[in-house]
Amino acid sequence: MTLALHWWRRVATPASAWLLVAVGLLVAVVFLPRMLVTIDVGGTQATQMPPTAKATAVNQARSALLQVIGGAALLAGAYFTWRQLRHTVSDSRDQRTLERQAHTTSLFNSAVEHLGSSEPQIRLGGVYALDRIGRDSTADREAIVNILAAYIRTRSQWPPPAQDRFAAERPIDQVPPLRVRAVDVQAALAVLGRWGPVEADHDDWPTADLTDTDLRMGNLAGAHLWRVRLRGANLARANLRGADLRGADLEEAVLDEADVRDAIADETTWWPAGFSPETAGVQINSR
Fold first, then answer.
1. Where are the alpha helices (DSSP H) in the chain?
2. Over 50: is that where the pLDDT of 198 sits?
3. What is the pTM for the complete model shown?
């Protein structure tokens, strides 16, 4: 039996399978009604039945059998149609997924190219394009976070180059807000600050590295900065009001005149030496 099944699996084709089914049905329709009549009335009585009565009984059995076969065929057709429809819907869904992924990849590459433009408006468009992709594609968020953080570190490093018109020695009163002197950097900060966990216990949330960045007079109000690295960053007069600073690394950061009122911190927040978060109005959450 096992050898026969193995042989059948090797030689059987859809055409041969359907041919076998057709032959089996033909044999069943021709011979099975006579067997059923014989079984129903008994072998002895079947031989004694008048030919007309026997033919009528066989035809009735054959008619009932054909109805059963027709119903089974109808059910089988409906089942195979349903299977085909499922495959069609699944293939269509997979095709749409592939097209959507290809479209997202194209948008992603275009946005990254825009970040390298010499025109600030084009760079700003690249930042907002990455923001749009990050909203629609959770899988791309970590890469976008890393790209925007690297962009901020490159475009607004601390201390600035010596030839920068807003050099390190310039008084803070003479430095315009970040949204004025570097609108693309402020936009990238807003994107990073907009994506954050609802609670600070999600280990899978990507961490942005903003080490040694010039964020003087930047607007980070209400930003989700959980676990963000701001070590050595200059946040003089920055607006951090209501920001989530749990787990943030602010060691060696400059917080002169920074507004940190109602910011949220905990024992995992690292502060610069000599800074008193309680005095500055920070809300300390204890676990």
1. 2-11, 14-41, 43-48, 51-115, 120-136, 141-155, 178-181, 183-194, 277-280
2. no
3. 0.66
